[in-house]
Amino acid sequence: MNQPIRSATLPSAGLFFKLASDSTIAPPPPTIAAKKKFLTFFFNWQLEIGNRMIPLPLANILHHKVPSALSALGVAIGVCMMITLSGLARGSLGEVADRWEAVDADLIIYPSNWSDNITTISGGGMSDKDAEKIKNLAIGDNTAAEYVVPIYLQRISIVGIEHNVVGVRPEDLRYLLGEGRITEGRVFDPKNACANWLKEKFSTPSEKIVDISEAELADHGGLEMIIDSRLARASGLKVGDEVYSAARNFTIVGIVPAGAMVRVFIPLATAEHLFYGGMGRYTLLMVKLREGVSIGAATEAIRRQKHLKVIAVGEYRAMLEDRFGVMYIYVDTVNTITLIVAMLFIMVTLYTMVIQRRREIAILRSMGAPRMLILKEVMGESLILTICGAAIGIALAPAAGAGIEAVKPLLTVQITTQWILIAAAAAVIGGSLAAIYPAWQAMNVDVAETLSLE
Fold first, then answer.
1. Rounded-to-integer distance, Cα 389 and Cα 428, Å
2. Which listed residue, of 7, 16, 150, 160, carries a Cα 20 to 30 Å from 52's Cα?
3. Which residues on adjacent β-strands are paired with residue 154?
4. Is the pTM of this model over 0.70?
5. Residue 336 has what DSSP assignment?
6. Domain locations in the chain as residue ranges
7. What's the rounded mean pLDDT across residues 163-167?
8. Chain centre to alpha carbon of residue 78
9. Separation of alpha carbons 207 and 15, rounded Å
């Protein structure tokens, strides 16, 4: 340490009086006694500041600019990663849960022989009879359901990205859009022409397997698709474009705002035909209860149907976290390792600075500086580096999140105050722990040996 004690640089008395004489109201000429009093005041003030050693940690950091800057940068990267990756994992999963919770329904019904977790189910496990039973389910003197929306779920690829597609009747689509409505184009199969045609084809007795060509399905409006605005932006698709999926060429006929249940919708009849090979089969029933009917009472009544299971729409989030929450562990592990590496970098930097300043530390100790003063100096250096790095990382996190969403528009990065505070606290605690060993080394410098050697 070339400059162990740095006091504030103050103007000389002559300069002070020169500046005063240049002002618009000139003071009277100072006397010799006034000048001596002025100089004595400034000398004592400098001595007091120097004795307090307030700027010493910062002065030491500035004396080792490159390693200090790299240490702060390491902390910044760790903090930025913790905030951004946590926001990415929890934001993307939370965005899916938010879209399902926006559905205008109270209950989700599915077959009892399926898994208890419905986040990855697909196929036609339910029938028209099940839908009719739920429609006619009575609690007291009235039916419980205001309406029942059958949907068919299937996983398909669109422009190289896997998506859940929902087959739904055109008149029921509005219940799955949350507060959104079609902003561009129109609804698919608006008059149910394709649905009626397919029902007729499958209900007509025939010894032959029903064979429907792609051209026939397209001519009846069965190969029409609606996507949400985020998928449209990510893929560059617009109304009127054709997209190849499920071995068919679909035409985009409408775009809905982000926030709908899924990003892709097709006619229910088309989904039944393509993915099941028949009609009258569904994956889930979305049920809206009448006013005054409690979810608990309706759930109990539905569970008496031995072959059906039911959950509240609000339980879907917990199912998502149960199925995919393991990625939180991976993300948090990566964040922890990154912060540990950053803190080790700070520890090595501080240790190197202590080794380089052994003579200065020995001089301070020989002049009566207590061990706690040396401890405070090293801890102060560590906290300055950590706080500066954490501040930079917090400032970079929103930009990093925006960059991720710009490159991958279908991902959601949610920057929350909770994770900003967690990252900042982890950095400060880690920085304090990183300073323990260098501080211990500094406190235990052998004064006689160090000064005799140098």
1. 10
2. 16
3. 165
4. yes
5. H
6. 54-92+326-453, 114-306
7. 93
8. 15
9. 110
